[in-house]
Design a protein that fits this description.
The protein has 14 helices and 22 strands. With 464 residues, it is α/β, with parallel strands linked by helices. It comes from Streptomyces formicae.
Length: 464
């Protein structure tokens, strides 16, 4: 602080590089620092008109300082601040929903240690994105960096602390029927992220033998990246599940809002299969409900939803699209290939921990191993996401479209990138918004067809 207001932030970072579509994220201190965090706190309060907010943070070394600076900025604009301290992102959403407060979560999720960021939401965990306030926040911060921020209000806000972990765990358990679980041996890889903080409390009192892996909170990620979407980061969990003879393995990303599952053989379970399994369970609670899925989840997801009396709705890839459709349709549940799972009973927000509880409940209330349980939901062969570096995304996509669209029984869809489908297979080719990449996902009814389609498309994308 200065006597006349905030000092103009010293960093010369380009805000367009750190203010993303859904959050703020960048390298600390090269791209942003505590001075800039203070301005973001002030701008968040001014744009939302909040008189009180909640702030949480992950285990990264820079998180306590950045979150405290944000709190100073918020207080200077007159907002009372409730600090909930170390938490997972979905624990911050719980605080926002249960306390009726806008929230700020300091995390860079699965990014490397030098990164940090802020996920913002309005009261009730409603997301703040580029078109719902984040653009205005960026513009305000940019103007203040040029001219200096206005003087603090006459009556600044207060700061209090509140630990919501026990309430969060109890709320999650209240949303899943867990009373008749058989004993389960569960290996959890927290990746030195926030799962190490939340999992013991969430699973407290359940008939679970917990085998913890990398539960020590360490934002330098000494064991492996906290990004289970990359297969190399599941290797330790897979080996431990087999060595322990465990019933299931679960991995969380750095801020513990995404959940990945491996079966008793150590084999990864597709997030599409988890989406279908949880959708079926949610439809038991909410008969006839709507379920959202993005366009690169498996065919099995809408099939299972219809089989259980629900209505599937297909969206673009990205959590903002899922949340918009959930709000528009009143959907009960939404799932993505990236292992984000959204629940109407959790303020339409994503929570990997609640999805994990659903999987434990499904497994523990019957006698089959997990591999047999999920087989009914894992019906087709998928390629996973394959990235290709290209000089011209548009030209390569057009080349692929020209090669396929005239063929018999082919349908062409451009909801998000290019989707080509027949009764036997489909593929989606999407450009990255931030890198010179095309992302390919293929699914087919058998492995031979999958390989043929995958190789043909990659030949066109990567050809000279």
């Amino acid at each position: 602080m200065t006597s006349g207001g905030w000092a103009v932030a010293a960093t010369a970072a380009d805000l367009s590089q750190i203010v993303k579509a859904y959050d703020i994220r960048g390298v600390v201190p090269d791209q942003w620092d505590e001075e800039l965090a203070e301005l973001f706190g002030a701008a968040f309060v001014q744009v939302t008109g909040a008189d009180a907010i909640a702030i949480g943070h992950d285990m990264r070394p820079s998180s306590p300082g950045l979150s405290a600076a944000f709190a100073r900025g918020a207080c200077a604009r007159g907002a009372d601040v409730t600090l909930i301290g170390l938490c997972s992102t979905d624990q911050l959403y719980f605080a926002s929903g249960s306390l009726g407060l806008p929230g700020a979560m300091f995390t860079a999720s699965h990014n490397p240690a030098q990164y940090n960021g802020i996920k913002l939401c309005r009261s009730g965990a409603t997301p703040v994105g580029q078109d719902s306030g984040l653009g205005e926040i960026r513009a305000l911060v940019e103007s203040w960096r040029e001219s200096g921020a206005p003087a603090p209000v006459a009556t600044p806000g207060t700061v209090s602390e509140r630990d919501t972990l026990v309430e969060y765990g109890a709320h999650l358990r209240s949303l899943v029927e867990l009373g008749s679980l058989r004993p389960l041996k569960v290996v959890v890889d927290a990746g030195n992220g926030m799962g190490g903080h939340t999992v013991p409390t969430v699973l407290a009192g359940l008939p679970v033998e917990l085998v913890p892996m990398y539960f020590e909170l360490d934002g330098t990620f000494p064991n492996h990246e906290a990004n289970p979407l990359d297969p190399k980061n599941l290797v330790d969990l897979q080996a431990r599940v087999r060595a322990e003879g465990a019933d299931i393995g679960i991995a969380f990303d750095g801020d513990a809002d995404r959940c990945f599952v491996v079966d008793e053989r150590g084999e990864p379970v597709s997030p599409s299969a988890i989406t279908a399994l949880v959708a079926a369970r949610e439809l038991e609670k909410h008969p006839g409900g709507t379920v959202i899925h993005n366009l690169i989840t498996s065919w099995s997801v809408p099939e299972v939803v219809r089989e259980h009396g629900g209505t599937p709705v297909r969206t673009r890839v990205g959590h903002s699209f899922i949340k918009e459709e959930m709000a528009r349709t009143g959907a009960i549940f939404g799932g993505e290939h990236s292992a984000h799972y959204y629940f109407r009973d959790f303020w339409n927000a994503d929570t990997g921990m609640l999805a994990a509880l659903h999987v434990l409940a499904a497994l523990g209330t019957q006698d089959r191993p997990l591999s047999a349980l999920v087989a009914r939901y894992d019906r087709y062969r998928g390629s996973g996401e394959i990235n290709s570096t290209v000089a011209d995304q548009t030209a390569r996509t057009a080349l692929v479209r020209a090669a396929f669209e005239g063929r018999e029984d082919v349908t062409v869809d451009t909801l998000d990138g290019l989707t080509i489908a027949t009764d036997a297979w489909w593929f989606n080719l999407r450009p990255s918004n931030t890198e010179p990449l095309l992302r390919l996902n293929v699914e087919a009814r058998d492995e031979t067809v999958l390989i043929a389609v995958r190789d043909e498309v990659l030949g066109l994308v990567r050809g000279g």
